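Case study B.
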Amino acid sequence: MQLFFQLVVDGLASGAIYASLALALVLIFRATRIVNFGQGEMATFSAYCAWQLCEWGMPMTPSFLVVGALAFLLGIGVFRFVIRPVSKAPVEAVVVVTLGLFVVFQALSLWLWGSDQRAFPSMFPNVGWDLLGVRVTASAVGIVGVLLGLAVATGAIFRFTRLGLAMRASAYDGEKSLLVGIPVERMLMLGWGFAAVIGFVAAVLVGPRLFLSPTMMMPILLYALASATLGGWDSPLGAMIGGLIVGVAESLGATFLPFIGADLRVVIPILVTLLVLLVRPVGLFGTRTVVKL
Amino acid sequence: MSTWNLRYAPASLAAVFALGLPAFAPDFMLFEFSIAVSYGIAILGLNLLLGVTGQICLAQGALFGVGAYTTAILNVSFGWDPVATLPFAAIVAGLIGVVVGLPALRLQGLQLAIITFGVASAFPQLLLKMDTLTGGVTGLATDQPMAPKWFPGSQEVWLYGLSLICAAISIVVVTRLLRGDTGRMLRALRDNPVIAEALGVNLTKGRLAAFAVSSALAGLGGGLFCILNGFISPQSFLPMKSIDILIGGIVGGITSIAGAFIGAVFVVFVPGFTTDIDPALGGLIYGLCLIAMMMVARQGIAGLRIEGLQKAVLGIFRIKGLSRIPGSVPGQLGGE
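Model:
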């Protein structure tokens, strides 16, 4: 039983990371109906920037803040110059473009920083506590805390500010929002910017757990895609809960399902995705869309 | 007569080039071209699936790997002649492709992309897990079919000839499929599945058939790749392989048969030229090409027309108005 709870705690910590990247994916999907396959690699790129600033002697907190702002601009730039020109193209074309982003940012990180793994500084102290035999580390608590912070912040922005209302409106119905005077284009751009920042937060959380490398976020992206599918692509809350579920399922599955084991844990998000798509394609919290002919 | 010329001139030119290549290309170059042909067959499959029927599959590299491993296992464990395994590589990959394609019956563009991306990511892990069969990390080394004594050229020319025969078979299969009723049915799946179904097209059958043929071609290409390379390991079939194949398809021209092979040459030779300068440069060029192709020339190199290019370049500066409207219908990628 102790092992079980230990695994749940570990799973929640990694689940919170999946959840934050899933949140970034869902924000972009809600705003522009695009799944950004390049999200993880953009985040890795920002994390490398932060690492570089730390390496140049800047303290951790200001460098994270500076890079957070940079990530925001990066998201806006990518939307403005890469996504917008193809926004009317068919789905397959947009998938290809975001895969292009994936390849470009991975190559960019590889080009600038090489393929050596780097140790990424952790935001949390290296301590832990024993709770009834279950070891809870400060980083696990911190990661879940950051996720909750993100959740509350996004929720509050969407729910209580005019900006959030305008963003929700543009995501809901772009044409009509335009008619009532919402600058839809700018809202979508902001959506991409926020998503890039959240992706960066996810990368900062992952960094200390794995080492920083150009392909660091590739597996995380797969888990985040599964989380977003599980939670429902148009629900930020769903993405976060989905992420936690996927994290726990992965942690438990890898230990308790002998035919999966540690090697095949990557199969778990795929199975989750497949199951959700076949049983309830809109996910746990998604809304059913009606297609008119 | 002139339209006939226009239709067949590029194809015959390409055939003359392919057949004449051994005369002036050195052996190592010929080997690279043979590898390119094996990729080209897999890309041809993707073109049929994505370009013609509009279903995205990011697991083409995994199916390529299935073909390669079928050839290797039949050769290593059962002692078959490598060339004789090629049809089985195609059949096994085709069957697995149908299984991968089953979700496609219910899922559209994005979800299918996610699922197949997952399959591509899991494939190398699966190979490691089944190490009794696949040799795990160490991989499998296969015999190469030797050129018979009467053959005047070198071993490379012999293998190149084998690749060309495989390519010719695949091209014949795909052109036959694209002609007439079958071709129209496949395009209808992409352009408007609802109307197609109302008019009596069996969507299930059509989609699965497209997946089967596409995967079988990937398997044939993979088997050929295994024979040419003489050695395979899970490292050869990482998820990036699927993306490479997609890049080849897009750059060459996703609806074109010639485009598949142009794209394959691009995918094989660009990293070769660029790694000398910087190992990351190839990726950078790949990614930028993917994005640029989608913006400027959605029909790839094979679809380039001068006036079309002009229009497309001007078009970039003229885009205005609303972004993607929620719920817009997925449409065709290549367009004809």
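The beta strands of chain A are 128-131, 134-137. The remaining cases will be described in the next quarterly update.
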